Structures are given as structure tokens and as C-alpha cells.
Amino acid sequence: MRLHVVSDVHGNSRDLARAGEGADALVCLGDLVLFLDYADHARGIFPALFGADNARRLIELRTARRFDEARALGRRLWGELDAAGEPRESVIEAAVRGQYAELFAA
User: Fold this and answer.
1) pTM as predicted
2) Residue 5: beta bridge partners?
3) What's the rounded Cα separation, in Å, for the pair 2 and 25?
4) Which domain holds residue 26?
5) C-alpha of 85 from chain center
6) Are 66 and 59 in contact (CB under 8 A)?
7) Could you name the domain of life of the organism this protein comes from (predicted)?
8) Cα separation of 44 and 31, whole Å?
9) What is the gyration radius of the CA atoms in the chain, in angstroms?
């Protein structure tokens, strides 16, 4: 029996679709959802909601260990979303479900 094991998919449905090629079984260990990609600031749930520029800024603050400023940015962005009448829980759930649908279709 040929078994392929993958992890850290992070929203990469294209490669996940190919991961099982030639295998009798495919095991995915997790990390399916991509919330924020430190290499490509345009990928993930966060930039889909707040834009790549805000994602880049958040990443810059976090990697510079300026955590208070990063939290303040996050609070401001989420607050704007909440004020627009889009509860963050609903928005995040919809985005996660969208990624899951794409990944499970792979």
C-alpha cells in the first residue's frame, strides 16, 4: 500500500489535488486554512477582508516585534468591519467554509 502524508496545506488546493497522485491513500495532518501568508501578502482570509496593504503592514509590525501596534491595527480593522454590520464571526466562518469547500473539492 502506498500512503502519502501531507501537512501545512494553508489553502493550497492546487498542490493538495496532486498530493494523492500515485497513492492508495492520502492523509492530511492539518493546517488546511490560510489566514495570513507571510510570503505572499495577498493570500489568505486576512487580506481578502482587509487588503494586501493591511496584511503587509500587520506582518511588518509582527516581524518587528511591535505587537502592541499590530494588535491596535487588528482592533481597528475588525472594528471597522463590525461597524459596517458584518460580525467578524460570520465573516470568518464564511471565509473558512469557502476555503474548506475549495480544498475538499481538490
Assistant:
1) 0.80
2) 27
3) 7
4) 3-105
5) 22
6) no
7) Bacteria
8) 13
9) 17
